[in-house]
Amino acid sequence: xxxxxxxxxxxxxxxxxxxxxxxxxxxxxxxxxxxxQIGVDxxxxxxxxxxxxxxxxxxxxxxxxALELSSGENDVYLQKAKAYKELYEKLEKRLxxxxxxxxxxxxxETPIKLTRG
Length: 117
Hints:
The model is unreliable at 104-110 (pLDDT under 50). The protein is globular and about 40 Å long. The longest helix is centred in the last third of the chain and has 23 residues, at 76-98. It has helices at 13-16, 21-37, 51-69, 76-98, and strands at 101-103, 109-111. Helices cover 54% and strands 5% of the residues. Strands 1-2 form a two-stranded antiparallel ribbon. By secondary structure, it is mainly alpha-helical. Helix 2 (21-37) packs across helix 3 and helix 3 (51-69) packs antiparallel against helix 4. The relative contact order is 0.17.
């Protein structure tokens, strides 16, 4: 079972029927890697509290699927792959720049400290 998104999160009819469990696992690994890159332990993050993580996983999985389905230069899947790449890179940049906000037990938001490795 995927950690950040599920099949019902995909709205693109050309992509939805072609998403595999392997693709969802790759999307999870991508989001986990990104969180680690910004100094956030992926094991302590509750994905349901962060829509940006779901959207990142959906865009990345859609990118991978479109790329796999592409048959060559300028077909519809290659165009979709490029569009999804732009979308996930935009969200990635936002996440790197602003980080995540985490809810503590008393329900107040506190920023997760970002560190450089």
